[in-house]
């Protein structure tokens, strides 16, 4: 059987090749672990409910004369808390989130011996980190969200 090649046959062949091209992408994204497409937060619907509390904490932090600062140095990251607050009464948590790999995310409780908190180099991979410092002093809650490159 000989296929007569005309413009109609060309359109059908082009459409078939295009569909095969698109379907191979759908297959790759759906079934191959190499193209993992997980969400940043597993419970993003419940996270949405607490968003107003987060805004209030951010507003409290913006009213501070000296806020928390984060600085890189050769042996890790140094987090400096405001010196006008008693460091013994500061408590909370620090979350380090890696946008490119959630498997190396970690959380650290704030346990201060002074106004500085050192995060060692062994916990950090080079690249971008989203840092979330959720802390409180005398029942007043504060929040700092910052992206850093280590």
Cα gyration radius (Å): 25 Å
Our estimate of the beta-strand percent is: 25-35%
How far is it from the N-terminal to the C-terminal residue, by CA? 66 Å
Total strand count, please? 7
In DSSP terms (H or I, runs of 4 or more residues), the helix count works out at 3
CATH architecture descriptor of the largest domain:
Sandwich
Mean pLDDT: 88
Shape: elongated
What strand line-up does the widest sheet have?
Answer: 4-3-6-7
State the order of secondary-structure elements, H for helix, E for strand.
HHHEEEEEEE
Description:
The protein is an alpha+beta fold. The chain has 2 domains: 1-37; 44-149, Sandwich (Immunoglobulin-like), CATH 2.60.40. It is 29% helix and 31% strand. The protein has 3 helices and 7 strands, in the order αααβββββββ. It has helices spanning 7-31, 44-49, 51-62, and strands spanning 69-73, 76-80, 90-97, 106-109, 116-120, 128-137, 140-149. A 4-stranded antiparallel β-sheet has the order 4-3-6-7. Strand 6 and strand 7 form a beta hairpin. The N and C termini lie far apart (66 Å).
